[in-house]
Amino acid sequence: MNISNLTVLQIKQKIDTLQIEEYEIVLKQLKKDNRRSLKKLALKLESCLEQHLKEKKRQTKLLKIEKFYRSKGFKFIAGVDEAGRGPLAGPVVAAAVILPEEIYIDGINDSKKLTPRKRELIYEDIKSKALSINFCCIDNDYIDKVNIHKATLEAMKRAVLGLSITPEILLIDALKLKGINIPQQSIIRGDSLSMSIAAASIVAKVERDRIMKSYDKIYPHYGFDKNKGYPTREHIEQIKKHGFSPIHRRSFRVKGLYDI
Questions:
Q1: pLDDT at residue 259, as a whole number
Q2: Residue 239, Cα to own-chain centre: how many angstroms?
Q3: Of the residues 15, 154, 167, 254, which has the fewest C-beta atoms closer than 10 A?
Q4: Model confidence at 232, in pLDDT bands (50, 70, 90)?
Q5: CA-closest candidate to residue 230, choices 196, 194, 254
Q6: What is the pLDDT of residue 150?
Q7: What is the widest separation between alpha-carbon atoms in the chain?
């Protein structure tokens, strides 16, 4: 894009349609342009470019584990994570995600470090770019029957086995799966170290939050749309007042709720 014959308004309109990769070319032209009104625009564009390069560098680090396994010959690498081990109500949800080798997902991170709105946006980006995604929900009855740890492992296993592409290796956040014939690597704090696991953590969290919001309409007393089933003070007070709902985990023991 040659800006020399364009008005300031036309330049602004053109910049709004640019891909981030094109910013550097336009920035060089802006800096050579003598029009004062373009100085602020150049500074803004430069700041955006710096943020992009910083984010790209962070994502390169986030793909370091995947790059290592690709160098060993693994093509289809699945990240696996869960959401909902700690709540008093609702399901535990596990997700498995296979990403392509060349991937950039703006802002991707451990789901706990993102706002709900940002998670939703990134989830849509993951869905559009991933080679395969699957998630599995295990309800509170099953959790009460076998315990949350076993339920989490079962949800992860089902999420992996339901992928449309069979993964060649699993990267799992802090856990290992039994009874599954796929090489795997357990990674402590994996959702902060691996993009594949971070993607799985976002998918699991978003899907579980949607489920809890739908339950809020059925059981409005407990504030599930806000607390997502976690033991907030208000949630516990509502349990004391209204008793347990059908989606509460009766095997979870919280002080003051033993006799309800």
A1: 55
A2: 30
A3: 254
A4: very high
A5: 254
A6: 97
A7: 78
